[in-house]
Design brief:
The protein has 136 residues and is mostly helical. It has one domain (35-135). It is 67% helix and 3% strand. The chain is built from three helices and two strands; from the N terminus they run ββααα. It has a two-stranded antiparallel sheet with strand order 1-2. It is elongated, with a radius of gyration of 22 Å. It starts with 28 loop residues before the first strand and ends with a helix.
Length: 136
């Protein structure tokens, strides 16, 4: 009677070993970074908002320019706020695993991302106030 190999997928959390004893990586990776749907959405939103802001600055020359920059910076702020929350989660997990160096790294990364998010939101608010003042 033959034994069946263990079922290996994302839900089983069973990661098989290679012949040399190292673990096999599951799912797509870009270098050491695992590609997840959340990271893909953040990357698309980041690049899209930067392109949108650049388009608004370089190509649009009417009153809609300010509104476009405000919405682009709001989306950019949301991306950095999500990165800040992700940094806090990774910091907590690194702290639980006893990895002090990674804990500090993720704390700094999350803090810088949070400051950039607040700056983007402040810029969007200023542009929205300027836009409201232009209409009256």
């Amino acid at each position: 009677m033959t034994t069946r190999p263990p079922r290996v997928d994302a839900q089983s959390h069973v990661v098989p070993r290679r012949a040399d004893g190292t673990r096999v990586r599951l799912g797509p990776h870009i270098g050491p970074l695992r590609v997840t749907p959340f990271r893909v959405v953040l990357a698309i939103a980041f690049v899209g908002s930067l392109a949108y802001i650049a388009y608004a600055i370089l190509r649009v020359e009417d009153a809609a320019q300010i509104a476009m920059i405000a919405t682009g910076s709001t989306v950019l702020g949301l991306v950095f706020a999500a990165l800040s929350v992700g940094g806090a989660i990774r910091m907590w997990r690194a702290w639980q695993d006893g990895e002090q160096g990674r804990t500090v790294l993720f704390a700094v990364f999350g803090g810088i991302s949070g400051m950039i998010a607040l700056g983007c939101f402040a810029g969007a608010l200023i542009f929205a106030l300027v836009m409201g003042g232009l209409g009256s």
